[in-house]
């Protein structure tokens, strides 16, 4: 029998996380690049945030002000960069809580200036350039340079710290040396227009990290905002096929969930197939009678269930609903029984949901361990 514990449970290896932070920040530092640790993937859970700081990230970033507020209340006094371009309704908190923000709109910049004046504070901004990924950012050099000059000349409480870009999010655009040279060129155009050097040229996120380790990052890029590769080290290894990341601990996080039913059933639904609990029309493959296990874990806890990666060979995720995950365990070398606890590696989106889920208990291990 398993120990009496609360499942589902997310087990976090703090030493493993600290080590990952150190590995990534060291390699970037050697290439003249400062790393801001992105904590949105872990909902700013304090022991994990602390591991980011201890591992060597001196600046933190997130998309949500509520997370910054939590960190501030817990006594974290590291500088914060706000990643999502702010809503007009949240500027008072942006100025109060964050030292720096990403910006892409002149109306917002003007309102931010007014808010800074009201609070008697200064605030730094990175102007975002959209290089084709089509999420946030000024479009074209002229618009970016005009905004930069406006901040520099007309908004005395704002400090134009630099420019940045975001790739590989909406438009799936790969950060290449050529793309980042475009950013470096834009930075230089801004510098010519304002007559001084910018401190930061922020070349993106996890997906820009390969350019650093391959020695392909243009020299002007001196800042990255990294979350996923530090937390999970999954995307570059498994989606990009990078084989040179063995120094990253890929099991900082372990999801444990308990089996509530095991039974052999047909793999093809019986009756008239209509729509599932979420209004989708999934495809089902008829593989005959198969051994299936049901977990007490669902989309409410982890979002997309296909983003769970079973550690036990022979286990595959078939699907599920808000509160259940259905596994095929037919090919599993050991029999699975009710009460068993199965372990999973996670994707970024699963981590995002799990760290915010009400019914998931979270365990922290201070020392590296193997489960
Ligand atoms: C989430 C985010 C990042 C960090 O992305 P990772 O893939 O976790 O490294 C960086 N910049 C912006 C603007 C983001 O929203």
TrEMBL record:
<dbReference type="InterPro" id="IPR000821">
    <property type="entry name" value="Ala_racemase"/>
</dbReference>
<dbReference type="GO" id="GO:0008784">
    <property type="term" value="F:alanine racemase activity"/>
</dbReference>
<keyword id="KW-0663">Pyridoxal phosphate</keyword>
<dbReference type="InterPro" id="IPR001608">
    <property type="entry name" value="Ala_racemase_N"/>
</dbReference>
<keyword id="KW-0413">Isomerase</keyword>
<protein>
    <submittedName>
        <fullName>Alanine racemase</fullName>
        <ecNumber>5.1.1.1</ecNumber>
    </submittedName>
</protein>
<dbReference type="InterPro" id="IPR029066">
    <property type="entry name" value="PLP-binding_barrel"/>
</dbReference>
<feature type="domain" description="Alanine racemase N-terminal">
    <location>
        <begin position="13"/>
        <end position="228"/>
    </location>
</feature>
<dbReference type="Pfam" id="PF01168">
    <property type="entry name" value="Ala_racemase_N"/>
</dbReference>
């Amino acid at each position: 029998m398993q120990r009496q514990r609360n499942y589902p449970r997310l087990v976090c290896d703090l030493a493993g996380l600290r080590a990952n932070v150190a590995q990534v920040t060291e390699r970037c530092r050697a290439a003249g690049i400062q790393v801001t640790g992105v904590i949105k993937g872990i909902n700013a859970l304090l022991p994990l945030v602390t591991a980011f700081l201890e591992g060597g990230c001196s600046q933190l970033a997130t998309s949500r002000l509520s997370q910054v507020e939590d960190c501030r209340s817990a006594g974290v006094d590291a500088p914060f960069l706000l990643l999502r371009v702010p809503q007009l309704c949240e500027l008072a908190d942006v100025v109060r809580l964050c030292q720096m923000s990403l910006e892409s709109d002149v109306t917002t910049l003007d309102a931010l200036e007014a808010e800074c004046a009201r609070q008697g504070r200064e605030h730094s901004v990175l102007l975002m350039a959209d290089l084709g990924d089509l999420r946030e950012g000024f479009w074209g050099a002229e618009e970016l340079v005009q905004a930069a000059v406006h901040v520099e000349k007309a908004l005395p409480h704002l400090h134009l710290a630099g420019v940045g870009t975001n790739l590989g999010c909406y438009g799936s655009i790969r950060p290449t040396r050529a793309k980042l040279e475009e950013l470096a060129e834009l930075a230089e155009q801004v510098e010519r227009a304002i007559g001084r050097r910018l401190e930061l040229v922020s070349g993106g996120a996890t997906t820009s990290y390969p350019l650093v380790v391959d020695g392909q990052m243009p020299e002007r890029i001196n800042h990255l905002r990294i979350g996923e590769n530090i937390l999970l080290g999954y995307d570059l290894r498994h989606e990009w096929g990078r084989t040179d990341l063995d120094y990253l601990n890929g099991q900082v996080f372990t999801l444990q969930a308990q089996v509530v039913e095991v039974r052999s059933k047909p793999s093809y639904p019986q009756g008239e197939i209509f729509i599932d609990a979420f209004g989708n029309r999934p495809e089902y493959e008829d593989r005959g009678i198969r051994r299936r296990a049901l977990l007490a874990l669902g989309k409410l806890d982890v979002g997309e269930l296909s983003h769970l990666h079973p550690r036990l060979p022979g286990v595959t995720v078939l699907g599920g609903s808000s509160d259940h995950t259905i596994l095929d365990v037919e090919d599993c070398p050991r029999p699975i029984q009710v009460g068993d606890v199965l372990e999973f590696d996670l994707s970024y989106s699963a981590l995002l949901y799990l760290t915010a889920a009400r019914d998931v208990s979270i365990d922290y291990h201070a020392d590296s361990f193997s489960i």
